[in-house]
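Hello Y.,

Per our agreement to keep a running log of every chain we model this quarter, I'm adding this entry. I've kept the format consistent with earlier entries: sequence first, then predicted structure.
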Amino acid sequence: MKKSIIALATVLTALISANNIQANTIKLESGTTEVVDTNQLQSVYDAYFDVKDALIKSDSKLTSAKAATLLTAITAVKMDKLKSNEHTVWMKVVKKLTADAKSISATTDLKKQRETFKSLSKNTYDLIKVSNPEQPIYKQYCPMADADWLSKEKAVKNPYYGSSMLTCGNVVETIK
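Predicted structure for the entry above:
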């Protein structure tokens, strides 16, 4: 029963994400569709931050659901709409991003989710570094986990240890 509820929540989350992605398109008079969102990768970044926030809460079920949303966002990216430098990095990281998102969504083992999040963060960093984010993004580092993550907030909230060591870490880079 528990697995059915998790599976249902994951499917609903993916459907809602797909609807949100579709909401970013408009119909032109000629009947063709054009993407309004100039930054194809913003939904990927937003979903990454949702996964991070779920890990901060140490909520493995929520983390799994948010990773499923991230997977939907990754598959919705239209490579031909990416800027040249983004496209180059996207081609290098998309397989790993997809594998990490699948891995995190497929388990409710918090330890495994956090371990995979290390790789997800590294590849998301490589991508966000070339895409000139609208707001500053902070690369943060935890020496205890020997791992980085990205945050929209300067204040440290550690996704690798949650409430047990919430403020362990520091800002190592500001991406603008």
